[in-house]
Amino acid sequence: MSATYYRLIRHIDAHIKEEIPITELAAIAGYSANHIYKLFKQYSSLPIMEYIRVKKLCYAANEMYTGRKLLDIALDYGYETPAGFYKAFKSVFGCSPREYKKEKEGISMYIDNVKTIEELDEMFVLWPKIFPHLAIDHQGTRDEWIERFNADPSILLYAKADDKLCGFALAAGPKGQYVNIEIDGVLPEYKDSGIHEALLIEVEKRARAGGYYGLILGIIEGMEEFYAKLGFIGRTLIQSEKYSIDELVAFNANDRNYEVSHTRVHDGYINQLWLNVPLMDQDLKRRYTEEIGDCWVQIIVNKEF
Question: What is the pTM of this model?
Answer without folding.
Answer: 0.73
